[in-house]
Amino acid sequence: MTIRFTCPGCESVLKIKDEKAGTDAKCPKCKRPFVVPQPEDDDDGIEIEAAPSGKAAAAAPADLPIDLPVDMPIELTPEVPAGEEFDPADVLNSGRPAARASAPSPAASQSVPPDRRPSIAELMKDYESTKKKDKSPKKAESAKSAPSAAETTSSAADVLARSYQQKRDAASAPPPLSRTDARAAEQRAVAIEFVKSRLLPGLAAFFVVAWGYSWYMNREIYDGPPLFEVSGVVTKSGQPLAGVRVEFGPEAPGSEDQVLQASAITDEQGRFRLSAFAGQYGAPAGNYVVGLSDQSGVPLQVPEDDVRKTVSDTAPNEFEFKL
User: Fold this and answer.
1) Where does the pLDDT of residue 40 fall: very low under 50, low under 70, confident under 90, or very high at 90 and above?
2) What is the largest CA-CA distance in the chain?
3) Per-residue pLDDT for 175 more than 80?
4) First to last CA, the chain
5) pTM for this structure?
6) HSE-up of 30 (CA within 13 Å, CB side)?
């Protein structure tokens, strides 16, 4: 037989063996002394239960046996006490204070004992939570990797543009050469490279040497009397005359003393420099008759004192003709 007694101090329900009926005892929670009443129900051991209040008392699950072989939903699965049975008489006999029973934690109340199979509701709940965890990363990755409409349109336009450009390049490219044509093209490339690197430099060197040899063989060699520098200026009314031809001719044609004729053309300052022939400046020493003519070849009147001039071989030959 089991005695059910409600402590008036903490309202805890105590289950006491019927052998303790009529004896003095203390509540293991609030330490309030009381007298064990006579037995009313059949049960073994002492058990502490918190008195339900309000809605919790209405929603408290019914006491059901836990040794049934049928799996029940998690809401109807009874809780198994974690501690061993407690007997207040043992505490009274030993004289030591009993440990206060701690309220079961939510994690402990929902944990599955090792000697009980999980219910169908627990298995379904675990399966659904695992399935949601597996789906959430995939949805996030698909949302990140899914391109927008603008990106898809831009990518399609780029692909079409590249395809069109490739077709244009293929159409404008020359047709592939056959084996014979490829060999001929290779030979032409070798010949062009030979002409550029060997033949053209050789021809240029040959022409330079030939021109130098021709100039040396055809040059004019002066073997007459020595020439002396003759220069001067032609003016009119104090202003220089440009483009006037000045000629120094032999005083007596056919004489043995004067065999050369020197001439020159005045520049912008009216100056001139006599030359016996191309590349040889000066005139032999002796007496000369001076003649002047304009750009059109019309003779100009030379003053009487300047008609005859003498080229000296010792003094400077600088003359001035005033028209």
Assistant:
1) low
2) 188
3) no
4) 172
5) 0.34
6) 13
Please give, one letter per residue, the 3-state secondary structure of 61-129.
CCCCCCCCCCCCCCCCCCCCCCCCCCCHHHHHHHCCCCCCCCCCCHHHHHCCCCCCCCCHHHHHHHHHH
Strands (E) across the chain are located at: 2-6, 13-17, 24-26, 33-35, 48-49, 230-236, 239-240, 245-250, 262-265, 271-273, 275-277, 280-281, 286-293, 299-300, 308-311, 317-322
Q: How far apart are CA 76 and CA 63, in angstroms?
A: 9
- Tell me which of 30-44, 105-119, 275-289 is least confident: 105-119
Confidence of residue 266 (pLDDT cuts 50, 70, 90): very high
Nearest Cα neighbor of 9 from 27, 22, 25 is 27
Place of tokens 């049934």: 68
Total residue count of the chain as it appears in this document: 323
Where do we find the tokens 């974690």? Answer: 82
> 273 falls in which pLDDT band (50, 70, 90)?
very high
The residues with which 16 forms a beta bridge, in sequence order, are 3
- Phi and psi at residue 25, to the nearest 5°: -150, 170
> What are the φ and ψ backbone dihedral angles of 318, each rounded to 5 degrees?
-120, 115
3-state helix, strand, coil in the chain (%, to 5): 35, 20, 45
b/e per residue, 270-300, with b = 16+ CB within 10 A? bebbbbbeeeebbbbbbebbbbbeeeeeeee
CB-CB contact of 311 with 285 (8 Å): yes
3 within 8 A of 18, measured Cβ to Cβ: yes
